[in-house]
Amino acid sequence: MSQPAMINRYRWYELVGIYAGIFVFLSFILAPFVEGFLVSLKPLSLLFSSPYRFWPENGSFEAYRTMWVSVPGFARYIFNSFFVSFIVTAVVLALVVPAAYAFARFRFRGNGALLGAFLAVNMFSGAVLLIPLFRLMRSMGVLNTYFAMIVPGVAFLIPSAIWLLRTYMLRIPRELDEAAFVDGASHFYTLRRVILPIAMPGITVVAITTFIGSYAQQFIFALTFNSKTEYMPLPVGLFAYFGRQEVVWNELMAASFVGIAPAVIVIFFLQRYLVSGLTAGAVKQ
Amino acid sequence: MSVRRSTVIFAWILLLPAVLYVTVIVAYPLVDTFILSFTDASLKKTTKWVGTANYDNIFNATFAEVIIRTFVWTAFSVAIKMIIGTFGAVMLNAAVPGRALFRVLTMPPWIVPMAIGIFMWGWMYNGQFGMISGLLQNLGLVSGPVAFLAHGSTAFWATIITDVWIGVPLVTLYMLASMQAIPQDLYEAAWTDGAGRFYRFRRITLPLLVPSMITMSMLSLIATFNSFDIIWILTQGGPNGDTTTMIIDTYRTAIGSKKYGEGAARAVLICIFLSIFCITYFRVTHRLASGESR
């Protein structure tokens, strides 16, 4: 009974090797963040001096104050990013929860083909469809509005959300909704009262990944469909720190950390959920 | 019978919103791209049918280079992602104290808005004051500053490394999940037979990971082929077009120069490649799935 524990007992040199490996791996992952943070602490004069100095001597949080002043619209960019991602996530969930349920529970003609088609959509990036999307947005008259980022954003996040949620719902025992149905509940009632509550952890994971995905994809759509600063999301808005002469790197980095802090904090608390949900979805696929 | 029909109708009601949405925003533009590629559409008011002229124009020496570069760029990026990602997964799978924290620390490149991570790399590559150039100088490995993004070959690798960095967390998580799906009793049986840790890894873990590795490589291949933000923010395809991939070239032509027709022809070509990847992906995963159930 103590077998698994025995298997997993490491010798000292194995431990050293594992920790060394983890250190090397995480160094690669975290180096840009460490360097970015140090840059945000350095005064510009120290940044632009040779030879290169890693440690911020007489560093301060000054850039975290000046960044708000030098780019007055910054708070707005953060708001825009969160607002767009929030709406995108809400719309994706509204479309995907019923669809995933249909895929998970009902057999109908074209089931597999449709599921495959959704997966195929996942493989076309927004960049490929940019021209017709631009024309479409223009004819709908929504260029330079939030819509121009939300509408295509939703479309490209639907497929992976459907796949992830369907996989999750497949694991909910069929007996549960069949029992409700036999008791005379309508399909809709069963979905709302039986499936939704049980599927909540899965829906949460889909909501988080969609939110992250929306945040990440805001660049190209915003760049192409929006030229108004008031609607710019954070990723494009950060270009405001690219001055005419040179980039104000310490403020750019400070702004980056301010911009990502809320998302990172939220995800830090939800990460347990996230890893287990993602892995469940990924392996079963 | 009537129950079944109502069930099917209900299923379609549930599916319809999502299907309609994707049809309008993805399928229609796809068709529109195809049609546009046979026209001289641009900012002009009138658009004329030009047959295959746009396609004839594409196939020249420069574009052949772009295609080859795209494939080389993608191949290296995916290969390095898989190696580093799998290495990370193997390390993070070990039952050592601190494992949960290490796993969380793997995620930032994936969670953070892509553009922000790319800006950070942009600074690290900075020729005069960047970290990498600075460290190399401090170590005495190079005599002067190295402007990584200003020279073709280094810019090419710099964009690859940034792409790898962004893609690694997902590979790691996926491979980690696949490793945990391996039945524990296989290891226990091998252990009882006296097999050492490395032997168990080589004979159990690695072979059973191969299907996941293939699936992940295919998915990664498609994402990498589509990669736009990294190259655009770091180099905009330069210097001298040395980091111009098909996606960048399409964007430049269509959105930069407003040559919608020519851009559309390039986009169609990308779609053809993507479809080939897509079909291969379905075939491979299907074969893997049926192989497993046997």
Automatic annotation (TrEMBL), chain A:
<protein>
    <submittedName>
        <fullName>ABC transporter permease</fullName>
    </submittedName>
</protein>
<feature type="transmembrane region" description="Helical">
    <location>
        <begin position="12"/>
        <end position="34"/>
    </location>
</feature>
<feature type="transmembrane region" description="Helical">
    <location>
        <begin position="77"/>
        <end position="101"/>
    </location>
</feature>
<feature type="transmembrane region" description="Helical">
    <location>
        <begin position="146"/>
        <end position="165"/>
    </location>
</feature>
<dbReference type="GO" id="GO:0055085">
    <property type="term" value="P:transmembrane transport"/>
</dbReference>
<feature type="transmembrane region" description="Helical">
    <location>
        <begin position="252"/>
        <end position="270"/>
    </location>
</feature>
<keyword id="KW-0472">Membrane</keyword>
<dbReference type="Pfam" id="PF00528">
    <property type="entry name" value="BPD_transp_1"/>
</dbReference>
<dbReference type="InterPro" id="IPR050901">
    <property type="entry name" value="BP-dep_ABC_trans_perm"/>
</dbReference>
<keyword id="KW-0812">Transmembrane</keyword>
<comment type="similarity">
    <text>Belongs to the binding-protein-dependent transport system permease family.</text>
</comment>
<feature type="transmembrane region" description="Helical">
    <location>
        <begin position="113"/>
        <end position="134"/>
    </location>
</feature>
<feature type="domain" description="ABC transmembrane type-1">
    <location>
        <begin position="78"/>
        <end position="270"/>
    </location>
</feature>
<dbReference type="GO" id="GO:0005886">
    <property type="term" value="C:plasma membrane"/>
</dbReference>
<dbReference type="InterPro" id="IPR000515">
    <property type="entry name" value="MetI-like"/>
</dbReference>
<dbReference type="InterPro" id="IPR035906">
    <property type="entry name" value="MetI-like_sf"/>
</dbReference>
<keyword id="KW-1003">Cell membrane</keyword>
<keyword id="KW-0813">Transport</keyword>
<keyword id="KW-1133">Transmembrane helix</keyword>
<feature type="transmembrane region" description="Helical">
    <location>
        <begin position="194"/>
        <end position="216"/>
    </location>
</feature>
UniProtKB/TrEMBL annotation, chain B:
<keyword id="KW-1133">Transmembrane helix</keyword>
<feature type="transmembrane region" description="Helical">
    <location>
        <begin position="7"/>
        <end position="31"/>
    </location>
</feature>
<feature type="transmembrane region" description="Helical">
    <location>
        <begin position="208"/>
        <end position="234"/>
    </location>
</feature>
<dbReference type="Pfam" id="PF00528">
    <property type="entry name" value="BPD_transp_1"/>
</dbReference>
<dbReference type="GO" id="GO:0055085">
    <property type="term" value="P:transmembrane transport"/>
</dbReference>
<feature type="transmembrane region" description="Helical">
    <location>
        <begin position="264"/>
        <end position="284"/>
    </location>
</feature>
<feature type="transmembrane region" description="Helical">
    <location>
        <begin position="104"/>
        <end position="124"/>
    </location>
</feature>
<feature type="domain" description="ABC transmembrane type-1">
    <location>
        <begin position="67"/>
        <end position="281"/>
    </location>
</feature>
<dbReference type="InterPro" id="IPR035906">
    <property type="entry name" value="MetI-like_sf"/>
</dbReference>
<keyword id="KW-1003">Cell membrane</keyword>
<feature type="transmembrane region" description="Helical">
    <location>
        <begin position="71"/>
        <end position="92"/>
    </location>
</feature>
<protein>
    <submittedName>
        <fullName>ABC transporter permease</fullName>
    </submittedName>
</protein>
<dbReference type="GO" id="GO:0005886">
    <property type="term" value="C:plasma membrane"/>
</dbReference>
<keyword id="KW-0472">Membrane</keyword>
<dbReference type="InterPro" id="IPR000515">
    <property type="entry name" value="MetI-like"/>
</dbReference>
<comment type="similarity">
    <text>Belongs to the binding-protein-dependent transport system permease family.</text>
</comment>
<keyword id="KW-0813">Transport</keyword>
<feature type="transmembrane region" description="Helical">
    <location>
        <begin position="155"/>
        <end position="177"/>
    </location>
</feature>
<keyword id="KW-0812">Transmembrane</keyword>
